[in-house]
Design a protein that fits this description.
It is a single chain. By secondary structure, the chain is α/β, with parallel strands linked by helices. The chain folds into two domains: 161 residues, Rossmann fold (3-Layer(aba) Sandwich); 75 residues, no CATH class. The strands form two sheets. Strands 3-2-1-4-5-9-6 form a seven-stranded mixed beta sheet, with helices on both faces.
């Protein structure tokens, strides 16, 4: 059965766009297995490992692979990269997890990332994940922020090489201004507004930090929003907080 590229959706399509021809790939937390299947059917990757910590999604991925006739996919039941050898893959994909979980998986692997590429999509804690990556001599070489089902997804193409930590605006709002950055401004303002209503002294430092981030976004993106007025609204943690 032929597989339409649109089956991937904008998020996985962005992930796939960073995978060069001939690269061996491991897809951690593969879930439905559509990315490994697509990479094999398109002839992009000669060999793909699809891993998941849960048996049910991995079984579903196996059924999908059989349905589409995709071969040369190795299915591994394991947490993170535990059952994958370092020399089996050129590219590690981890998408759809929290920034904390992604960091833990990479840290626990103890791999040498010098000849690897990471393609990461974190649903939360993106600034914290990015900060950790740069501390490991890894840097974002390219970023795409597709929108799918009303939600934005930051997809990072990460390569080895020491680089200076990006400024707060880029950690929080993306490396290029756009709808996602504007949405992050609204979320930050809502969080700040909620912190103003509390009497906890511990919130003062967070309040000042978020205000500094807003000011940096205004400067980095060359926006003309000098006041960044805080409006009434409830705080939330969707899309990266």
């Amino acid at each position: 059965m032929m597989m339409d590229k649109r089956i991937l959706g904008p998020r996985l399509d962005a992930v796939a766009s960073f995978i060069p021809q001939g690269a061996r790939v491991v897809d951690v937390g593969t879930d439905h297995g559509l990315l490994p299947i697509w990479l094999r059917l398109q002839g992009i990757s000669p060999f793909v490992i699809a891993s998941d910590i849960r048996p049910a999604p991995l079984d579903a991925a196996k059924r999908n692979a059989a349905r589409y006739g995709a071969k040369e996919i190795s299915f591994r039941l394991c947490p993170g990269l535990e059952a994958i050898r370092e020399n089996e893959a050129d590219i590690v994909v981890i998408a759809g997890m929290s920034g904390e979980t992604i960091k833990s998986i990479l840290n626990d692997a103890h791999w040498d990332w010098q000849d690897k590429r990471l393609i990461l999509e974190a649903n939360t804690k993106q600034p914290e994940l990015l900060t950790w990556l740069y501390q490991q001599n890894l840097h974002v070489s390219e970023e795409k922020i597709p929108q799918e089902n009303g939600r934005y997804y930051r997809v990072f193409c990460v390569d080895f090489g020491k680089s200076e930590l990006p400024r707060p605006a880029f950690l929080w709002g993306g490396f290029v201004p756009g709808p996602f950055a504007e949405r992050q401004v609204r979320l930050l303002k809502n969080v700040i507004n909620g912190l103003w209503l509390t009497a906890d002294p511990k919130d003062v430092s967070r309040l000042k930090e978020y205000q500094r981030i807003l000011e940096d976004m205004n400067d980095a993106y060359h926006w003309n929003y000098p006041e960044f007025a805080v409006e009434a609204g409830s705080a939330g943690n969707k899309n990266g907080f």
